[in-house]
Specification:
This protein has eight helices and ten strands. The protein has 242 residues and is an alpha/beta fold. It has one domain: 3-Layer(aba) Sandwich (Rossmann fold), CATH 3.40.50.300. Helix 7 crosses helix 8. The chain is globular, with a radius of gyration of 18 Å.
Length: 242
């Protein structure tokens, strides 16, 4: 069986902000059709890596490809990406309906849409309200709808369950697994390792701007000797396994 196609290829990626080295030679290959967890302590470089993948930050050196396309300023590859930030910033005066219409105008209406989360989260009654009046959890649900709406090949999710209640969080995880089953790839940054343990196939562990581990969850457990992701990641931080 041939190796799966990679949705992200990075080689020697570096990024410095002033005197601060944020990414220090990132090498990784993210396979398609899998859920890859991106973990690490604060200031490890996760956000900068995500912004680099989205073309929002330009690396100082190295080679970066997303969905087979070089990240070089041509934004067309982003049409195949669904992005969910940790805290979405929507135009405050738009209603939910107007926001979704605006996103469709910007992206182009696809032949079919995935609006399942609208029903799953029971958002229909909230869509007529201005975004500024919505609670943080409802905004997060709306952000999830936007991310999945166009059935993207690659989903990049940054702390997606932050602000979600347990029921919504559980439904969201079920959506992740179903999306993987249809062949999409998911890069999921999260500090909630217990939740990540339920869905992730692979783990990328960043520490001080470097990849300290990248591979299947089962291999991480074997290397560290722990059967829980939280303890295994803690062992990485102590031992510096790469």
């Amino acid at each position: 069986m041939s190796a799966p196609r990679s949705v992200v290829e990075a080689s020697g990626i570096t990024k410095r902000f002033g005197k601060l080295d944020v990414l220090r030679g990132i090498d990784l290959s993210v396979p398609s059709g899998r859920i890859t967890g991106l973990v690490g302590p604060n200031a490890a470089g996760k956000t900068t890596l995500i912004k680099s993948l989205l073309g929002l930050v330009r690396p100082d050196a190295g080679r970066l490809e997303v969905l087979g396309q070089p990240v070089n300023g041509d934004e067309r590859y982003r049409h195949a990406i669904g992005y969910m930030p940790q805290a979405a910033r929507f135009p405050e005066n738009l209603t939910g309906v107007e926001l979704l219409d605006m996103v469709r105008d910007l992206r182009g209406t696809p032949p079919s849409e995935d609006s399942e989360l609208l029903d799953t989260f029971g958002l229909a009654p909230e869509l007529a309200k201005p975004v500024r009046t919505l609670s943080g959890g409802t905004r997060q649900k709306l952000s999830a709808v936007v991310a999945f709406l166009f059935q993207p090949d690659l989903l990049i999710l940054d702390e997606p369950t932050a602000g979600l209640d347990p029921v919504a969080s559980g439904a969201f995880k079920e959506k992740l697994l179903a999306t993987r089953e249809r062949g999409a790839s998911i890069l999921l940054a999260s500090h909630t390792l217990a939740e990540l343990e339920e869905v992730a196939d692979d783990i990328i562990f960043l520490l001080e701007g470097r990849v300290r581990f990248h591979g299947p969850v089962a291999r991480l457990m074997s290397l560290t000797g722990f059967a829980r992701l939280e303890k295994a990641v803690a062992a990485l931080m102590r031992q510096g396994i790469s």
